[in-house]
Amino acid sequence: MTTASASDDVRFIIMGAGMSGILSAIKLQEAGLNDYVIYEKADRLGGTWRENEYPGIACDVPSHMYCYTFASNPEWNYRHPPGAEIQAYFEDVAHRYGVDSRIQFRKEITRCEFVDGRWKIEMSDGSTDEGDFVIAATGVLHHPATPEIEGLDSFAGACFHSARWNHEVPLEGKRVGVIGTGSTATQITGALADKVAKLSLFQRTPQWIVPIENPAYTEEEKAEFRKNPDAIKQIRDDVTRTFIDGFANILHEVDSPGLLAVQALCQQNLDDNVKDPVLREKLRPDYRAGCKRLVMSENFYDAIQHPNAELVTDGIERIEESGVRTVDGRLHELDVLVLATGFQPDRFMRPMEIVGREGKRLADVWEKGPFAYKAISIPDVPNFFMLNGPYGPVGNFSLIDVAEMQFSYIMQLIDQVRSGSCKELCASQSATERFDAERIEAAKKTIWASGCRSWYLDADGIPAAWPWTFDRFTKEMEKPNLEDYDMS
Ligand code: N01
What we know:
The protein is of the alpha/beta class. The protein folds into 2 domains: about 10-145 and about 345-485, FAD/NAD(P)-binding domain (3-Layer(bba) Sandwich); about 150-210 and about 250-340, FAD/NAD(P)-binding domain. Helices cover about 30% and strands about 15% of the residues. The protein has 13 helices and 21 strands. The strands form 6 sheets. The chain has a 5-stranded parallel beta sheet, with helices on one face. Strands 8-17-9-10-13 form a 5-stranded parallel beta sheet, covered by helices on one side.
């Protein structure tokens, strides 16, 4: 990647110690760029996997694919890793690569301003710092979305968002309500239906479910992985190919044979596994599979048919002291209410105040919604690069692979400064506008725009995800087109 350079005395500020912040630190170190700091507002690393600790949390991307390409892990216990194992993996990698000691915890960046060619950083505790480059690794699904439902505050029991799980609250023998039917709610349902007195799942919109299996790796298999890293690589290569062909390359074209096959698979999963015809029809979406982010589950249909579980499809009228009142007048009495209602995916670094060249405030630039050239760079915000920025999600693919490719692209931009070709660079306004116009046209043709509500859609209803194939993403991340950058 990086070779000899004219200037290595550059300082990097990394925002966030989640998956992509840790990745950035490791890659900078690898390039001999050791003057960096990671600021993390929480008191632990891990990002999403630190924040989401709800029962049943796991990753639907298989374990041997859901890790850095340079740090495979023979110790995964399951084909799909539980959240706690992923958290332990990131802690272990950060420690092994010596980047954990470079994280400053409980440091919330509130303001970044580009002044005289450098980024000046302010934190909520009053401390300050300066750097030449900022890497924004603040995550996508990070700001919980609280539903606007009348009476939410009046509920007398415990109520919390799925990403703020309250472990003090006992669940055994309790009546638990879950609002939402996304990936999170389906995993919670799978984990809790047989453990609580009653589980009421409040469904506004049904989901297509891709069936998966999640067997444990045996001790023999793990011993083989330890001995023979090629065995892990083989699994990773196979799974990656399946993901690319089976998901990532098919979502941009509504009637692709791959998408029709996914539709058939989901329909069959529903028809084969839900016995009661009334329940089955309540669970049947009226939109195309893949329109919302696909839910993958090994146990959701079993769980929702458990005698303790009830699927509530009447809309929520309001929340009262003792539970949820639905529009049919029924009161669903509850002890605990979980809001599995998703996230505000358009927040990114906000509410930080980011001020680029000549006092340009990101809050104004992004007034109508976030954008970034190729998800990475924003005009007039030089030497500031985003990982998993706007349109970052690429077709249900592992965000780790996406971030690795993005970082390697970013390093090539940084190299322009290190080699003395320029002092500062960011995407040009014209290239960003051109990219965005093409992106919007392509996004309108994707399955995400085929008629459903989802977190992929921006305020104008345009899917804010990479609208082309995964292969195109890989190609575009190989090498920046420097003509699209303002370099000065
Ligand atoms: O959130 P969501 P999530 N009244 O936005 C409902 C990743 N992830 O946390 O469909 C009633 O998908 C809303 O209803 P509707 C993955 O990328 C991955 O589940 O809008 N209901 C919906 O059902 C995923 O896509 C894993 O009608 C309300 C739900 O809440 C993303 O995170 C695991 C409501 C929100 O679903 C987000 O998933 C978990 C209201 N007022 C998450 N407001 C892996 O396995 C919202 N809803 C990798």
